[in-house]
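Handout for the seminar on molecular recognition.
Each group receives one record of this type.
Step one: identify the two inputs.
Step two: read the structure output and locate the region that could contact biotin.
Step three: write two sentences on what you found, then compare them with the reference statements printed after the record.
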Amino acid sequence: MSLEELSVPNRSHFQAHESATSTIDLARTWARKGAADGATVVADRQTSGRGRSGRVWYSPPGVNLYISQVIVAPLHQLRFTPILGAVAVREALLAHLSKSINPVIKWPNDILVNGSKLAGILAEIENHPNQSCILGIGINVNATQTDLPKDTRIPATSMRLVAGNIFDRKMVLTTVLDSLDKKRITLKSNPRELLKDYSTHCITLGKKVRVTIPDHKPFFALASSLDEDGNLLVEDDAGRLHTLLAADVDLIL
Ligand code: BTN
C-alpha cells in the first residue's frame, strides 16, 4: 500500500502509518506528549487491534480504516465522546452510501446496517498531561467476506458489501475527519445536542434486549431511554430499573 492512500492533504496534527499495534497506542503516546485536540493517527493495518470488552478488532491491510483521535476537553465533556464518535461516523457514512442504505447506532456505539456491524468505536481516557479521550474508530470499508472476522457476536459487514462497490479510502477518511471536527465543536458548545442526535438514530431504544454484564447473570429488559450522560436505562422483567454504563446489549428480534 502506498501511504498516499491514507494521507489527508492540509491536515495538521495527523500521522499515517503502514502498521501499528493499535492506533490507540500511538495516539495515547502522542496524547502523553501533549497532543493537540483533534490529533489523529491512522494505520493501514493493526497487529493488535482491539475492540470493546477485550475483544480483538480484526485489522487486515489495504481495505479498511483504523483511526484514533485525541480529544482534549474537560471531564464533564469527555463523557460524551463515545456518543460524539457514533454520531460523527454515522453521518460520515451517510455521505458515501446511497439513500436506501440506513446506518443506525446500536448502543453503546456500534454502527450497523441491516443488523450487521459496519463500524465500531472504542473510547479510552488519558489524564496526563491533559484530560483527554482517545477515540478509536474502525470502519470496514472495502473488506470482502474473506477479509472479515467470522464467529463475531454481531455479524460483520463492510461498506463494499452493503453498497456493491469499492470506496476510495482517502475520501471516506476525509469525510470522517471533517465530521469529527464538526462534532468536537458541538461537544464544546452544546454536548446535549449530540445526545439528541444519538437518540434519534439509536435502534436500541424502545426494544426488548438481553443484557450481559461481566460477572452477572444475563437478563432480559426493555431499553427505555438514555440518561443525560448517555447511559442506557433499562427495565427488567421484574420491573426493576437499571442504569447501564457498559454492557453488551443484544436486541431480541
Ligand atoms: C468495538 O466495536 O468493539 C470497538 C472497535 C474499535 C476498533 C478501532 S480500530 C482503530 C482503533 N484501534 C484499535 O485497536 N481499536 C480501535
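Reference statements: The helical segments are 23-32, 75-78, 81-96, 159-163, 169-189, 191-201. Residues 22-24, 46, 49-52, 55, 57, 66-68, 110, 120-122, 136-138 surround biotin (CB under 6 Å).
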